[in-house]
Amino acid sequence: MSPRRPVITSFGFAGLFPLFITLLLAALMLLPVGSGAANIAMPHLVLISVFYWLSSRPLLMPYGACAILGFVLDLWLDVPLGLNMLLLLLTRLFVLNQLKHYKGRSRLVHWAIFAVLTLGLYVLSWLVVSIVYGNFWPVKAIALQWGVTAFSYAPVAFVLGRMRRMVL
After folding, report:
1. Measured between alpha carbons, how far is residue 138 from residues 84, 97, 114, 129 in Å?
2. Is 111 buried (19+), middle (13-18) or exposed (0-12) by CB count in 10 A?
3. Three-class DSSP category at 39
4. What pLDDT does residue 31 have?
């Protein structure tokens, strides 16, 4: 009887591909979109990417990568330090605990789970930001951001899926 062989994750280009793509999406997320006449809310592309990669290849998006991505976003954005790190780590924790229930299901199920998860995460971030700044932030802005992020999941996940099939 031979001992079980440990699962080894590749850390070459293919192993780091999800992290590189997510960093690229973070930079894309920070681009100024819209004009003074019509500001368009940008979806949280990093959250979409992290959820997608955790749902398809969880070993390629470890806790450290989620923490680094969240910390980089916190430095770039004007949010309390650690907020995006907390959101991405909670996303990883949720997906790893619930993946067995929705893996192999339709894309619509993944989309619905993402929408519900992000609703909870946006409510949590609204509470944290309101507590840190000492006044309630407008709920309308958070609701708009959640709606844009939730409805952007399907097209972004489609593109990430095509990229995954080409590289991995």
Report:
1. 19, 32, 23, 11
2. middle
3. strand
4. 80
